[in-house]
Every structure is written in structure tokens, then in C-alpha cells.
User: What shape does this take?
Amino acid sequence: MQRKRESMSLHTNASDGAGSGWRETIKIVVHALILAMIVRIFFYQPFNIPSGSMKSTLLVGDYLFVSKLAYGYSRYSIPWGIIPFKGRIFASEPKRGDVAVFKLPRDNSTDYIKRIIGLPGDHVQVKQGQLYVNGKLVPRTPAGDFLETNEDVTIDLKLYQEKLPDGPEHLIAKATDEGYMNNTDEYVVPPGHVFCMGDNRDNSQDSRFLNMVGFVPLENLVGRAEFIFFSIDARYPWWEVWEWPFQIRWSRLFTGIT
Assistant: This one.
């Protein structure tokens, strides 16, 4: 009888230990999920690049973190708009040259990523492919070539190092200096807005198209792109697992964005 009670006690202790282990595991997972959600809402949010409008700064298949702290918070920087309010809190002004994620003004829901070219009150114009800010030519210097492939068609782009007023140097890509996108009217950035352009200047739907993107309200800014944490050249079907190690762009991992 004594042995039977001992056996039952051992079995109960083992069951209690297993249950306690599962409870601790579930608790850790829940805490981790809550922490990840807090980080995503208030600090850093991951994004991936689906188009080539920011080549060669950002490539299709780049995964990056965007800092929410950079510009403060608005209802558009909070996922799913779960905290609706007007304006921005803890607001900081963006700078020329920032690569920023914003909600498309046309629908306030689609995420776009472009470079901030003009601040409130700035005059922006493109003439013969050259960018002018407040009437002054933005200098650019040749920086080599870049091959862009779209649906098996390869385009030879020219790279230039561009220096915005009070902004960092950055690369832009150009296919031509002709056409509408390279000869625009002068844009005057309204108060409370910014003017954004893609680094792939001839293949970017941006603020130059007033009926498509236009001026971006400061309220629509989600955050500033900080660094690339992963990058993959997904030209092969996902099921070709043997190609995965060769698709990763190892040299782009954990690189800053300027």
C-alpha cells in the first residue's frame, strides 16, 4: 500500500512538473509577443521593398527596419490605425535626404518609400533631368553604371552621386534626361507637407505626379528607413530550396541606408 501511494505521488509530481513547464513556456511566448508588438508599434517596424523605384539605394527583395521615433507618432504610424488621433505627438521635422516610409495621400493606407527632397516652403523643379531646389542646381557627379532588369529586358542606367542642400550624398539612377519627368513645372511645397522622389528617377511614381502621389502631409509619415537587415534576389520559384543560399545578398545585410 505504501509503495502504491509512493508511485501515485511520483506520477502526480511528474505531471505537475510537466504542466508547470508548459505554463512557463506559454508565459515566455506571450511575453515575447507583447514585447515584439510594443517594439513594432512604438520603435521599429519592418518593411520589404516590392518595386525598383529606389534603385540602386534599395533593391527589390530588401527587408529593412523603419524608425518610428524619427518623426514622432501619428495615426498613420500606428499599425491598423488602432489609436486614431489627429496630428503628430513627439513630432520631429524630417530632413532633406531622409529615406522615409509614408502612407499614400490618395488613400492613406498604401505604404510608399521615397526620398524626401523638399521641405515645407521649398521650390522644387526638374529641368533637363537635373534637380533644382529653391532655384539652385543640385550637383551630381557620375558614379558608374547600373543594369536594371525588368521582365527579361535589361536597361543600362547611369548612376550619379547627388548632394542635396543640407542633406547627405546619395546615389540616383538615370536612364535619360528627356521626357515629362525630367522637365517639370516648379512645385511649391505647402506648409505641413514634404516633396518626395524615388532614387530611380525615371522609374518612380512620386510627388512629381500630383494626381497620383503629390505632396505628402507630415501626418502621413510612418518613419525613417534606417538599415537593411535581410536581402534576397528572389528570381527563382520559392520551392527551389537549393537556390536559397545563392539568392541571399550577403553584402547588403545589416547595412545603413543613406
